[in-house]
């Protein structure tokens, strides 16, 4: 048989699917994969239902329905003072992953170098390689996961076509401060590099923190592609409605890729997302408050049974650094043990590294109901001491 495309044929099953399958096999609570066990905002779901019954259900515009593109532009103007032309600088995609894929394929050509920060979301590297790009991997480390000038100087050069930057950072749950963004912007401008910014967690931030889009940093407006996700903003992860925002020369090419990926996105969901983006600011603050309460519940519970928790600044996740516990096992071994012995699934953060992995950090998802978190904590009460549940 003719050999298949090695970029994809040689990929393992994703850690998210592997741990979710382990959760199913062991009848375990799944705190691994990042989705809420809540149906999502009822009024937004009803808006989608109304649009399905009474709205347009044929092919919408490839770029997205005008109503949603205008809502995206208005939303970012309100929250970030980012002025976008909805007709030439905004595109709707079928999820954030498709938005990222279209953006990478629009920018990267064979031989181009692309700076990527580890821990790295699993779709980035295969798509870069499919485009013929060469990933240049940088290692972020706990507890701060911060960027440094020395780090950036070690990889940026005249061949650096793009940088992929995830902020807020999954899985580390960090919201980057302005000084890190300005440092990255400095290197992008010095080496004429395009920034592809995965900002799908932009609204899921806590403790009064501010998400600063890289596109708003001086000098970055014309060289940044900003990616967002309605699924993350509204806790409707199955809807798969993504946003691409960029200056016209960048967006035009991303749109040409998008037309051959999914071409368009369900119009009823687009209409509902447009409605959701127009909701009052308090809706978004209340969402953050509710998630922060769940974060704090899981954090306090884990700390009470001896887990060293790294504070979550954003996303649905918090991380635990196992290194002080002296368990004599890696994060992968720990996750296998707790899903089989304690019936709780988590994600080893080493799975987000291709080389030189951090092997002591585990990610838990807290966007769950109180009873789900409490049951998981009860099951994990002996795990920190290595004792098997009887």
UniProtKB/TrEMBL annotation:
It holds the Pfam family Aminotran_1_2. The keyword Transmembrane helix does not apply. InterPro entries: Aminotransferase_I/II_large, Kynurenine-oxoglutarate_AT, PyrdxlP-dep_Trfase, PyrdxlP-dep_Trfase_major, PyrdxlP-dep_Trfase_small. Transmembrane segments: none annotated. GO terms for cellular component: cytoplasm. Its cofactor is pyridoxal 5'-phosphate. It comes from the Bacteria. GO terms for molecular function: kynurenine-oxoglutarate transaminase activity; pyridoxal phosphate binding. Residues 28-380 form the Aminotransferase class I/classII large domain. This is Aminotransferase. The lineage of its organism: Bacteria, Pseudomonadati, Pseudomonadota, Alphaproteobacteria, Hyphomicrobiales.
């Amino acid at each position: 048989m003719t050999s298949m495309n090695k970029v994809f044929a040689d990929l393992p099953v994703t850690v998210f699917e592997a741990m979710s399958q382990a959760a199913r096999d062991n009848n375990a609570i799944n705190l691994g994969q990042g989705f809420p066990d809540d149906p999502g905002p009822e009024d937004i779901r009803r808006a989608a239902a109304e649009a399905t019954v009474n709205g347009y259900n044929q092919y919408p515009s490839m770029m997205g329905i005008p109503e949603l593109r205008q809502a995206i532009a208005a939303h970012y103007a309100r929250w970030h003072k980012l002025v976008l032309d909805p007709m030439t600088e905004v595109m709707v995609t079928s999820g954030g992953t498709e938005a990222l894929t279209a953006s990478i394929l629009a920018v990267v050509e064979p031989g181009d170098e692309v700076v990527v920060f580890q821990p790295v979301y699993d779709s980035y590297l295969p798509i870069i390689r499919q485009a013929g790009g060469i990933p240049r991997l940088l290692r972020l480390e706990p507890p701060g996961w911060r960027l440094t000038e020395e780090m950036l100087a070690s990889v940026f050069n005249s061949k650096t076509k793009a940088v992929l930057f995830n902020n807020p950072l999954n899985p580390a749950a960090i919201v980057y401060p302005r000084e890190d963004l300005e440092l990255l912007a400095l290197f992008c401008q010095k080496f004429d590099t395009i920034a592809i910014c995965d900002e799908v967690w932009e609204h899921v931030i806590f403790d009064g923190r501010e998400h600063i889009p890289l596109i708003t940093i001086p000098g970055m407006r014309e060289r940044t592609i900003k990616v967002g996700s309605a699924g993350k903003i509204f806790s409707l992860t199955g809807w798969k409605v993504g946003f691409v925002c960029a200056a016209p020369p960048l967006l035009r090419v991303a749109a040409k890729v998008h037309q051959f990926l999914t071409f368009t996105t369900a119009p009823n969901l687009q209409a509902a997302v447009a409605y959701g983006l127009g909701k009052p600011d308090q809706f978004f603050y209340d969402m953050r408050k509710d998630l922060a309460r769940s974060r704090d519940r899981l954090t306090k519970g884990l700390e009470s049974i001896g887990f060293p928790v790294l504070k979550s600044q954003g996303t649905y996740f918090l991380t635990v650094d196992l290194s002080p516990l002296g368990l004599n096992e890696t994060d992968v071994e720990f996750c296998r043990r707790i899903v089989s012995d304690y019936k709780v699934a988590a994600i080893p953060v080493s799975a987000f590294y291709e080389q030189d992995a951090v092997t002591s950090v585990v990610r838990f998802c807290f966007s769950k109901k109180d009873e789900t978190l409490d049951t998981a904590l009860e099951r994990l009460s002996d795990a920190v001491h290595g004792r098997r549940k009887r």
